[in-house]
C-alpha cells in the first residue's frame, strides 16, 4: 500500500522551531518530487516548498517561508523533512506532504500535480 505519513507538528511559540517528517511506505521517495503544502482554516491549500526527484530540478520555496524553512530528504530512511525556524502565527495551518512522480518541481505549487498525499499534521504558532 502506497502511503505518506506526516509527523512532527505541534504547538510552538512565535520564533520557535519545528521539524516535520514525511515518511513513505510502499514506494521509493527518490523517484518522486516531494511538496509540502499547508492549509489554514478558511483558506486555500498553498504550496510551501518542493524538493525534486532524483531526475533533477531545483528546490522551491514560497516567498513567505524563504530563509526560514528548509526542505530535505533522507533516501536511506525514505523520509522527507521540513525544518521550520522563526515560526510566525501566520504559519499556523495543517501541513501536508505530497509526492509527484519524476517531477523537477516545475509546477510545484499546483496541488493537482501530485499523485499521493499524507493525512496532514497540525502546526500551531501561538504565545
Cα end-to-end separation: 40 Å
pLDDT below 50 for ≥5 consecutive residues: which ranges?
none
Shape: globular
Strand content: over 45%
Number of helices: 0
The strand count comes to 11
- Average pLDDT for all residues: 95
The percent range for helix content is under 10%
Radius of gyration: 13 Å
Largest sheet: 7 strands, mixed
Task: Name the structural class.
Answer: mainly beta
Order of helices and strands: EEEEEEEEEEE
Features:
mainly beta
Write the layout of secondary structure elements.
Blueprint: E1 3-7, E2 10-12, E3 18-25, E4 32-39, E5 46-51, E6 60-61, E7 69-74, E8 79-84, E9 93-101, E10 116-117, E11 121-125
Question: Would you write up a description of this structure?
Answer:
The chain has 127 residues and is an all-beta fold. Helix content is 0%, strand content 47%. The strands form 2 sheets. Strands 2, 4, 5, 6, 9, 10 and 11 form a 7-stranded mixed sheet that branches. Strand 4 and strand 5 (46-51) form a beta hairpin. The termini are far apart.
